[in-house]
């Protein structure tokens, strides 16, 4: 497996900051209280987890769509259809900032990883893609699920 390009790795890791912050501020009440003094509520706790998670799940639909453009015929049609599922999942299943929505969002990211694997096995994703996606998805899932314990 190829090494993940440095820029993709660093940008991917930077994209985790809102997830890590959301989990930390959801789990540490004093941190959340102090945050409300300087940040709007959308940037604290479960709200940032759900809001940002929904955005990223939708963004990843676009990434998969890009991979589908490398296919032809039936493979392309299936790829396009599968690529819209993460965004539709977030739109339909994530309704509020409840524990249930965090679980649905985590399920969406887990399913996204399966879609990533499917696109990678078809040779539509870069050779290093799964190495990056497993790392990022593992951290995202931890951040979404940790506040539930």
Gyration radius (Cα, Å) is 16 Å
By helix and strand content, what is the structural category? mainly alpha
How confident overall, as mean pLDDT?
96
- The H/E string reads HHHHHHHH
Q: In the residues, how many domains can be counted?
A: 1
How many helical elements?
Answer: 8
InterPro entries: DUF3429
Pfam families: DUF3429
Organism: Paragemmobacter aquarius
Transmembrane segments: 42-65, 77-95, 101-120, 132-148
How is this fold's topology laid out?
Blueprint: H1 6-14, H2 17-27, H3 29-35, H4 45-68, H5 73-83, H6 85-93, H7 99-121, H8 129-145
Helix pairs in contact: 2-3, 2-4, 2-8, 4-5, 4-6, 4-7, 6-7, 7-8
Model description:
- The chain is mostly helical and 149 residues long.
- It has one domain.
- It contains eight helices and no strands.
- Helix 2 packs antiparallel against helix 4, helix 4 runs antiparallel to helix 5 and helix 7 packs antiparallel against helix 8.
- The mean pLDDT is 96.
Keywords:
single chain; 149 residues; mainly alpha; 8 helices; globular
Question: TL;DR?
Answer:
The chain is an all-alpha fold and 149 residues long. Helix content is 74%, strand content 0%.
